[in-house]
Amino acid sequence: MKVLLPAVMLTLFHHPMSSGSRYTRLILNEYDVDAELIEERPWARRKEFLAINPAATLPVLLAENDLPVIGASVIAEYLDETRGALKRNRRLLPESPMERAEVRRLVDWFLVKFENEVTRHLVRERVYKLQMSAEVGGSAPDSTAIRAARTNIRQHMKYLDWLAATRDWLAGGHATYSDMAAASAISILDYLGEIDWAETPAARDWYARMKSRPSFRPLLNDRIRGLAPVAHYGDLDF
């Protein structure tokens, strides 16, 4: 089946501290796809945004004819079929069905399991609550939620370190969607200074390679008002 590459500009509704949004941005950049970025605060529940996505979740991509594609994994599949299939050796999905299964497993690990056990709690408590009004949940951070998330980080980082130490890239011999998913989540925690890189040297080396990819540079320029990143965040060599 011939895939036609649309020339239209896409629009991405995102938040810089959303791992799914970062994942989508990395894929767009890897495939050299220009997109207009609109920062969205999903808790604000803007009428215009709810008309596009009644669930008020991120990310949302307005694709050809301004049709919405909703959710990080769904957007990745759409971009893979419409752009990635044309990239040959730059495609982020392997040819083998079993290799594809491993990529999808790891994407689910970092965008679902890791998100539910670590990322979303730290982002909500340390970032979103600072931006929210009291009427929609803004308040002081919940120290119990933060401690629970921090407890979970260590085991996840050990697993990431094992993957990085035993494989060239997380799912095998070349960078795939799994590396983009992991880096999207890890980069948020790194921004917040939540990772002790001395404990996981293989993961550190993998992340340094990810940070050095041209697709990653726009993420390193992200800044949250009132919350500066750790000093090494934008340093390619830590």
From TrEMBL:
Pfam families xrefs: GST_C_3, GST_N_2
CDD domains assigned: GST_C_family (cd00299), GST_N_family (cd00570)
Gene Ontology BP terms: glutathione metabolic process
UniProt keyword list: Transferase
Domain GST C-terminal: 96-230
A molecular function GO annotation: glutathione transferase activity
PANTHER family: GLUTATHIONE S TRANSFERASE D10, ISOFORM A-RELATED
Subunit structure: Homodimer.
UniProt name for this protein: Glutathione S-transferase
Organism: Paenochrobactrum gallinarii
